[in-house]
Amino acid sequence: MIFSFCERFVIFLFYDMEEQKKKRGIIVMENIIVKTKALTKHYETGTHTVTALNGVDFEVKEREFVCIIGKSGCGKSTLLHMLGGLDTPTQGTVIVDGMNLSNMNREQLALFRRRKAGFIFQQYNLIPDLTVYDNITFPLELDGARIDREFIRELLQTLHIADKTEMFPSMLSGGEQQRVAIARALAAKPAIILADEPTGNLDTASAHAVIGLLKIVAKKYRQTLIVITHDPDIAQMSDRIVRLQDGKLVKGSDSDVSNESSCGHK
Ligand SMILES: Nc1ncnc2c1ncn2[C@@H]1O[C@H](COP(=O)(O)OP(=O)(O)OP(=O)(O)O)[C@@H](O)[C@H]1O
Ligand SMILES: [Mg+2]
Predict the structure, then answer these.
(1) Which atom of ligand 1 is nearest to the CA of 247?
(2) Helix, strand, coil proportions of the chain in percent (round to 5)?
(3) Other C-beta atoms within 10 Å of 8: how many?
(4) Which atom of ligand 1 is nearest to the CA of 53?
(5) In CA terms, which of 18, 33, 227, 257 is 20 to 30 Å from 74?
(6) What are the start-end ranges of the E strands in 19-177?
(7) Which of 43, 86, 265, when mutated, tests ligand 1's pocket best, judged by the most ligand atoms within 8 Å of its CB?
(8) pLDDT of 191-238, one tens digit each?
(9) Which residues lie closer than 8 Å to 205 by C-beta, 6 or more apart?
(10) For residue 86, with 0-12 CB atoms within 10 Å meaning exposed, 13-18 middle and 19 or more buried, which class applies?
């Protein structure tokens, strides 16, 4: 036999860990943190049905930085909402970090969102009466989670807002406010960060600086980053670009990220 006793023992332990995960309902997907299969979302408007997503098969590797691009109305936000458990599919499956979100009830989805996903939106959604520091920590307090002060201090330094902790949001520039929103999204150390046009309110220079910092923090804390953008330069900062068109992923997505107008929807 080519394996020593120790090697066989290690192989057995690894095999047993994988079996235990399977028994606990955790789906083992090596290096794949996000996987959708035939993901479909219909919205009923009263008069007609809108197909926002139409059979999307999508995978993201752990620690990958993926940009989603596509014309207005083609399903980008809908896809991001499904990945973050903010909305549920009409058909198909969404698996994130080994958990099948399509099988979860509202409480389980809420727990998933608080523990696993960090959201960043175009609107910073900071609470005006709270200081920068309190804005960052209050979701953790709501969740009864331990606040890792050392981690937050490091996060603030990396995002270049360590000198703003006692200020209120109205005292900050747009770029600074978005960096606070990023710190808030990362404070719970989520496995994935989902950002929907995070720089839509910023000038070009601030937008690129914010995405540059977001990329640095995601790499530093080994997080997976999925960003929706209309900005070709920001898309080029990612590891991979995927394009949505009429609710479907289009092959050869990384060419021509410019020239996006509205899409005539179904
Ligand atoms: N709650 C809803 N009810 C009905 N239709 C909806 C709802 N949410 C989204 N839609 C429709 O689904 C389609 C996809 O919307 P979505 O917001 O995902 O587009 P998007 O690609 O993010 O667009 P944009 O770039 O403008 O943000 C659109 O036609 C939109 O009108
Ligand atoms: Mg959108």
Answers:
(1) 14
(2) 40, 25, 35
(3) 11
(4) 14
(5) 33
(6) 32-44, 49-61, 65-69, 91-96, 99-100, 117-121
(7) 43
(8) 999 999 999 988 898 899 889 989 998 998 899 999 999 999 999 999
(9) none
(10) middle
